[in-house]
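Much of what follows relies on a compact textual record of a protein's fold. With that in mind, consider the following protein and its fold in token form.
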Amino acid sequence: MMPRAGSGGLALAAAALAALTGVACGSKQPEIAALEWRLESRPAEAGSDYESLSVFATIRDDDGLDNILELWVVNDDSAQAWKLTDADWIKVAEGADTWIGASALATPELAGMPRGPYRLVAIDAAGQRVEREFRVSGSFPDKKAPVAAFSGGRLSISSAWPETLALAFDGTGLLIASPGASAQPSSLVDSFGPDLAARTAEVGAYGYDPSLRMGAFSKRVRTR
């Protein structure tokens, strides 16, 4: 999860980024070839669930993806911004493309994520910047988050979401597997394979509705 800055810091960051209207001369500016986002509900350690945002993009740069130094996710209407660098963004290879971005972006107070237009801004080492807008809208459907249970060595998942994944986490909390969830209780080996089953310390579930770009995480359950 991204480190959460104070609300004042987010507002100042958004204002500073909005002031960057010029484009540096020199190398060709990068290009955002594709962008995907989803709004998600996550269980809080105490209290009710909270909303978060996941944003990923494929970015083209003549000098390679390593030339990208910063990504910003900006909501101008609420004066909030989230800064990403190689210290906290995630890279995911999918075929010939590499997606870069972050999940679990949230407000400092874990309030609802702002609706309306957002900007994804990419800045490279030469100071060249490119941005792409996307819009977050809608309310979460009247569906409960999936429920994961582990008993007698078997994982059971209950979900009303159109798509549901089974999640496996290792002892450090790292997600190591996310296959489609079985409709019937199944062993960890059947769910994740023998190698990953041996590393699994916690399990959970994730439900997603692609028509809404919204998803929900279950609470995690320990397996040992």
